[in-house]
Specification:
It is globular and about 60 Å long. A five-stranded mixed β-sheet has the order 5-6-2-1-15. Strands 4-3-7-8 form a four-stranded antiparallel β-sheet, with no helix packed on it. It has 283 residues and is mostly beta strands.
């Protein structure tokens, strides 16, 4: 027994000595990064036409210290942007437009309101400063209304409640949703924010729930977006890319886009149709 312990200790010591220097600097010859145009345009009925056009940077580029210079380098100016619908062309001049409701900033804007039309396409055309073209097509989807919002208090801890949000899904079509809820303010970070589709629905009834996290007097803002497949794929790929950035063992994830053309571009051009319900927690 003593000899076995001695041999095991000797083997362990040898292994520790062999692993004494596990740190080694290596030089990676990374290919040059070709920056891309990044497009974000969300059409919301009754809201102005607005679009954000930026450029991407390499992951290992030095982080800028001058905020103003960073913003100027990020935004793409002097592009020609047009959205066409039912034969009407809406030009979006290059100007900064802060959307106070969403907290987003856009750099192309037209004050004309997006028509509430669920039957005709909207077409996007961007001519970049270097003469390249970016195009995309989308259509507004009809709102899927929230049927009801039910507040349930925990039987064991009757000071805390949850919220159940019900809606009816059309089982004859393939539908995609983005579900969000905010606590007490729409300006806050959403407590729940995810996309899903209706392959799990059997009887057309969908319910989205929350944990028992709310007390009397809290205000819950429930929002149900009816989205298309292009936006579903885009948002899922963005979330996967964010998660991959924080995991050293993950593979890089490509962003799935619906923009095309001869410009090197990624992004999304889509309609936003949603229903929102405001509920104050009360017994």
């Amino acid at each position: 027994m003593k000899q076995f312990i001695f041999v095991s200790a000797a083997i362990l010591l040898t292994l520790l000595m062999a692993c004494g220097n596990l740190e080694k600097e290596i030089n990676l010859d990374l290919p040059a990064y070709d920056g891309q145009y990044v497009v974000e345009c969300y059409l919301e009925p009754g809201q102005p036409f607005s679009l954000l056009l930026t450029r991407s940077f390499a992951y290992f580029d030095p982080f800028p210290t001058d905020l103003q210079q960073f913003v100027e380098n990020l935004l793409v100016d002097s592009a020609a942007v047009t959205i066409t619908h039912n034969g009407v062309a809406y030009e979006l001049p290059n100007q900064i437009y802060p959307n106070l409701a969403t907290g987003k900033i856009y750099n192309y804007y037209n004050p004309a309101l997006v028509p509430q039309d669920y039957d005709s396409d909207f077409s996007l055309k961007i001519t970049t400063p270097d003469g390249r073209t970016i195009t995309a097509t989308t259509r507004l989807l009809p709102v899927v209304p929230i049927d009801s919002v039910v507040v349930q208090f925990d039987e064991k801890r009757d000071t805390l409640a949850r919220v159940l949000t019900y809606l009816t899904d059309d089982t004859s079509t393939e539908d995609y949703y983005r579900r969000m809820y905010h606590l007490n303010s729409l300006d806050s970070i959403p407590r729940q924010d995810f996309t899903t589709f209706d392959d799990f629905v059997d009887n057309g009834r969908i319910v989205f729930g929350t944990p028992f996290d709310f007390k009397e007097g809290d205000t819950i803002y429930n929002t149900i977006f009816h989205i298309d497949r292009a936006y579903f794929d885009f948002w899922e790929s963005v979330i996967n890319a964010v998660n991959a950035n924080g995991n050293p063992f993950s593979q890089p994830t490509a962003i799935l886009s619906n923009v095309k053309g001869d410009a090197n571009a990624i992004g999304i051009f889509t309609g936003l149709s949603y229903d929102r319900d405001t509920t104050i927690i009360a017994k």
